[in-house]
Amino acid sequence: MANLTPTPSTPGLHVSKPSPSAPAQGSAVCHCGATATATGDAQVAALVKGYTDNHGPAHHKEQGR
Fold first, then answer.
1. How many C-beta neighbours within 10 Å does residue 19 have?
2. Best CA proximity match to 35, nearest among 54, 18, 22
3. What's the pLDDT at 2?
4. Which residue has the higher pLDDT, 3 or 13?
5. Where is this region: Disordered (predicted)?
């Protein structure tokens, strides 16, 4: 399987949760240069919300205005 961790050359959002009892882990890299990581279900949920609201897809919405 390919490494799905985002990098500056392949920005995006990656979330993993190896088992129901393990904490979620997430990482995000935006093409604008912003990066973030999180561990724990609530922190990863906040990371996903922050990324989708302010980076990644949000940048595309601004370009369409």
1. 6
2. 54
3. 65
4. 13
5. 1-27
d(CA 10, CA 5): 9
Break the chain down into helix, strand, coil percent, rounded to 5. 30, 25, 40
pTM above the 0.85 mark?
no
Q: How many residues does the chain have?
A: 65
Eight-class DSSP state of 46:
H
The predicted-structure confidence for 35-47, as pLDDT tens digits, reads as follows 999 999 999 999 9
DSSP E strand stretches across 1-65: 12-16, 25-29, 35-39
